[in-house]
Amino acid sequence: MKEIIQKMLIIALSFHLFACDGAKEEEKLEQESEAYANQLSLNVDSIALGDPVRGKKLYLQCRACHSLKKGEPHKIGPNLYSFYNRSAGFKDDFKYSDALSNSGIVWDYQYLDLWLENPQSLIPENKMVYVGMRKKRDREDLIAYLLIETQQ
Ligand code: HEC
After folding, report:
1. Does the pLDDT of residue 136 top 90, yes or no?
2. How far is the centre of ligand 1, averaged over its atoms, from the C-alpha of 11 (Å)?
3. If both were cysteines, with which of 41, 78, 84, 114 could 94 make a disulfide (CB 3.0 to 4.6 Å apart)?
4. Same domain membership, residue 5 and residue 55
């Protein structure tokens, strides 16, 4: 009997610990979200924005080819610092495809969304090898993250 009670106690305790961990993790995420939201309201005009914390994870799909911060070197793709609302192909020291340089596109929210959904259909023969992000919500979240991270 004693043994059974002991076992039950251990089980109850581990559940409790587990739940605490979960709560802590959630709290951390909430704080991170809040910090992002503060930056957003400071820096970006009021467009419907997704969840940058989720966007950070989605950015793993881009990270091999792009850096985001001021002064970081280009990778396979251009460094994206301050790209938002600028003309496609604006970095003088990156060799873009003619298709992208001559597209006449400005990276506002709408074009960026179309680009991420399907780069080849927006600008045929561009040289970004990426199939596209199908889900609207994913793109919203990724864009929220990109807008924040490429401002500094
Ligand atoms: C395999 C490498 C690769 C991946 C993965 C990739 N890109 Fe690119 N990206 C490029 C290249 C190369 C270009 C330049 C294309 C051209 O010149 O035609 C580019 C161009 C861009 C541009 C236009 C920049 C400018 O200066 O006009 C944006 C914005 C962009 N990528 C965002 C993303 C995002 C966001 C992701 C992740 C979803 C991503 N890319 C994934 C290689 C990549």
Report:
1. yes
2. 50
3. 78
4. no
